[in-house]
Specification:
The protein is α+β, with helices and mostly antiparallel strands. The chain has one domain (31-502): Cytochrome p450 (Orthogonal Bundle), CATH 1.10.630.10. It is 54% helix and 8% strand. The protein has helices at 2-30, 46-49, 55-65, 84-93, 105-110, 124-137, 140-163, 165-169, 174-191, 201-218, 223-227, 236-267, 278-287, 293-324, 326-340, 348-351, 355-367, 400-403, 450-467; strands spanning 68-73, 76-81, 100-101, 377-378, 383-385, 388-390, 395-398, 468-471, 483-485, 490-492, 499-502. It has a 5-stranded mixed sheet with strand order 1-2-7-4-3. A hairpin with a 2-residue loop joins strand 1 (68-73) and strand 2. Helix 7 (140-163) runs parallel beside helix 19. The termini are far apart. The chain binds protoporphyrin IX containing FE. Protoporphyrin IX containing FE (HEM) binds next to helix 6, helix 14 and helix 19. The chain crosses the membrane at residues 6-23. It is an enzyme of class 1 (oxidoreductase). Pathway: Phenylpropanoid metabolism; trans-4-coumarate biosynthesis; trans-4-coumarate from trans-cinnamate: step 1/1. It catalyses: (E)-cinnamate + reduced [NADPH--hemoprotein reductase] + O2 = (E)-4-coumarate + oxidized [NADPH--hemoprotein reductase] + H2O + H(+).
Length: 505
């Protein structure tokens, strides 16, 4: 059995080498490809650049090869874009041509080959999904309906932390409680549901499965089998695990949330629009035959990943920077005391009256961009970019982190300095009005969740700073802000212990 496999592998390797040489000879005549390291047959540049294609490593390669470069990763073409002009070309000027998404072998599993919205190609299905999701999730009406819920959730966080004597003494891993808050913020919108405590068995199960999905998808460990098809048999165990996690998650969404909501809807009058939560709108679309049940489940899957984790990571980064910059924390607290009055809890409409709070959020999203490479884009057909030919179905990564942290474009970018958004960068907003700063992307595939994420960040960071002095644990002057990059994500490596000393207001 093993010998047979080895023989097959060697024959495939031989044929692939010959084909690769032939194709590369033909290609080099026809195409003017972007610069990049010289690829070798079969492996391309994989042996040279390895698996860890995080934003910092891609920045180093950009310094060597330029603002656009091409990596041949086995069978996949990867084009990395690192200038505001080229980002504009990909996301705006040629937004249709580069508006599709690639999926690798793992994302194929988790999205049912693009039956979702985030990872589907640009076309009819994406348009329909984005339209169906807009009314229940991405309008100001949703913000106005749910902001009381978000304010309530963060008030509960403040209460729980105040009640915990450890918080003021040795500190607690604040993130754990904030994770429950973020689930509740989004599950209220989705299902009109919340979890009472961190020990709620359903919450524990959900959190574990989502965490596993994230770990498996964002890891670089499976790149070799994705890039080089003859190595794919070695990924069998990994892909089996992905399939199991995917099945368990979708089943959980179905059994505990969708079916429950359907039951409730059948026993209550459904003509009251005000009482509808997001999933009711999505189920309406299913009943009209616009989408099927799998699409409904993948919408729930997308929100669990795209909304909860990204916002939680950004909150966690914001807290870390505030702990490590006590003078900024103090300035923020003073702003809220002055504008709102001491002890007046910040609400969603207040966040617009607090420019320093807005600047702290912008600076967090700049330095600690949660999705530093955006979600990978793709061109379905052969295309041109920056004077080069881009072969069809190339993965296009926009290194948004580098655009926002390039010292040629920003003053001392490595410094956490919210003041920059009052001084030299006073016109820059998070909505993509400047191609050097794209924490939510821009254009057709940009983040529709920005409308929810910014107020949630404002309310959460605002309330924490109003109520507590946030400090490193005893004996430490700073908390560890080492990063953990993934396929396109960036979060803090260690969930630090934070001391939260209650303020007497
Ligand atoms: C701080 C929090 C967040 C950050 C930094 C963030 C960032 C991003 C980025 C960079 C993209 C990809 C843009 C591109 O590829 O051009 C994206 C896509 C997306 N985000 Fe967010 N996001 C956040 C919160 C949210 C929330 C709260 C939701 C939903 C409620 C959400 C839903 C989505 C969806 C559905 C997409 C895919 C859009 C598409 O492919 O058409 N995000 N996000």
């Amino acid at each position: 059995m093993d010998l047979l496999f080895l023989e097959k592998a060697l024959v495939s390797l031989f044929i692939t080498i010959i084909l690769a040489i032939l194709i590369s000879k033909l290609r080099s005549k026809r195409f003017k490809l972007p610069p990049g390291p010289l690829p070798v047959p079969v492996f391309g540049n994989w042996l040279q650049v390895g698996d860890d294609l995080n934003h910092r490593n891609l920045t180093d390669l950009a310094k060597k090869f330029g603002d656009i470069f091409l990596l041949r990763m086995g069978q996949r073409n990867l084009v990395v874009v690192s200038s505001p002009e080229l980002a504009k070309e990909v996301l705006h000027t040629q937004g249709v041509e580069f508006g599709s998404r690639t999926r690798n072998v793992v994302f194929d599993i988790f999205t049912g080959k693009g039956q979702d919205m985030v990872f589907t190609v640009y076309g009819e299905h994406w348009r329909k999904m984005r339209r169906i999701m807009t009314v229940p999730f991405f309008t100001n009406k949703v913000v106005q309906q749910y902001r009381y819920g978000w304010e309530d959730e963060v008030a509960r966080v403040v209460d729980d932390v105040r009640k915990n004597p450890q918080a003021a003494k040795n500190g607690i891993v604040l993130r754990r409680r904030l994770q429950l808050m973020m689930y509740n913020n989004m599950y209220r919108i989705m299902f009109d549901r919340r979890f009472e405590s961190e020990d709620d068995p359903l919450f524990v199960k959900l959190k574990a499965l989502n965490g596993e999905r994230s770990r498996l998808a964002q890891s670089f460990d499976y790149n070799y089998g994705d890039f080089i098809p003859i190595l794919r048999p070695f990924l069998r165990g990994y892909l089996k695990l992905c399939k199991e996690v995917k099945e368990m998650r979708l089943q959980l969404f179905k059994d505990y949330f969708l079916e429950e909501r359907k039951k409730l809807a059948s026993t209550t009058r459904s003509d009251n629009n005000a009482l509808k939560c997001a999933i009711d709108h999505i189920l309406d679309a299913q009943h009209k035959g616009e989408i099927n049940e799998d699409n409904v489940l993948y919408i729930v899957e997308n929100i669990n990943v795209a909304a909860i984790e990204t916002t939680l990571w950004s909150i966690e980064w914001g807290i870390a920077e505030l702990v490590n910059h006590p003078e900024i924390q103090k300035k923020l607290r003073n702003e809220m005391d002055t504008v709102l009055g001491p002890g007046v809890p910040v609400t969603e409409p207040d966040t617009y009256k607090l420019p320093y709070l807005q600047a702290v959020i912008k600076e967090t999203l700049r330095l600690r961009m949660a999705i530093p490479l955006l979600v990978p884009h793709m061109n379905l057909h052969d295309a041109k970019l920056g004077g080069y030919d881009i072969p069809a179905e190339s993965k296009i990564l926009v290194n948004a982190w580098w655009l926002a942290n390039n010292p040629a474009q920003w003053k001392n970018p490595e410094e956490f300095r919210p003041e920059r958004f009052f001084e030299e960068e006073s016109k820059v907003e998070a909505n993509g009005n400047d191609f050097r700063y794209l924490p939510f992307g821009v254009g057709r595939r940009s983040c529709p969740g920005i409308i929810l994420a910014l107020p949630i960040l404002g309310i959460t960071l605002g309330r924490l700073v109003q109520n507590f002095e946030l400090l490193p644990p005893p004996g430490q002057s700073k908390i560890d802000t080492s990063e953990k990059g993934g396929q396109f994500s960036l979060h803090i490596l260690k969930h630090s212990t934070i001391v939260a000393k209650p303020r007497v207001c």
